[in-house]
Amino acid sequence: MSDCLFCKILKGEISSAKVYEDEYVYAFNDISPVAPFHVIVIPKIHIGSTDEINGENSVYIAKVFEAVAKIAKTEGLEKGYRVVNNCGEEGGQTVGHIHFHLLARRNLQWPPG
Ligand code: AMP
Ligand code: ZN
């Protein structure tokens, strides 16, 4: 997707602070963090949102969660963390490339606002 912000990050057209990368997944620091640790984890293919997950692309979502487990170990998040996916307008999604917020290093409230 030529006009997708996170595809541009994947292509290196917009800079990002890499935290993790493999064949399927890229993770980088959120530009506007809401927790002391706030990383965005994305698949390396354009999937618009959770609504677009299907049998052909779901391996990328599985790989996202494998990456989360690796990042949590590498970054020492043993006290816990939260993975958030915002989907659609009322879900609070602002970037149209599926992404997962990995939040940690503070007490996260439940339920969320
Ligand atoms: P969402 O509101 O769930 O769509 O999350 C989009 C996230 O992307 C927000 O937390 C933004 O701060 C983050 N974001 C937007 N632009 C960039 C960027 N250029 N680099 C890193 N994070 C970004
Ligand atoms: Zn994209």
Can you walk through the features of this model?
This protein is of the alpha+beta class and about 110 residues long. The protein has one domain: HIT family, subunit A (2-Layer Sandwich). Helices cover about 25% and strands about 20% of the residues. The chain is built from 3 helices and 5 strands. The protein has a 5-stranded antiparallel β-sheet with strand order 1-2-3-5-4, with helices on one face. The chain is globular. About 20% of the residues are buried. The site of zinc ion has 6 residues, from helix 1. The site of adenosine monophosphate has 13 residues, from loops.
Q: What level of helicity do the residues show?
A: 10-25%
The secondary-structure class comes to alpha+beta
According to CATH, what is the topology? HIT family, subunit A
Instruction: Indicate how many domains the architecture comprises.
Output: 1
CATH homologous superfamily identity: HIT-like
CATH class: Alpha Beta
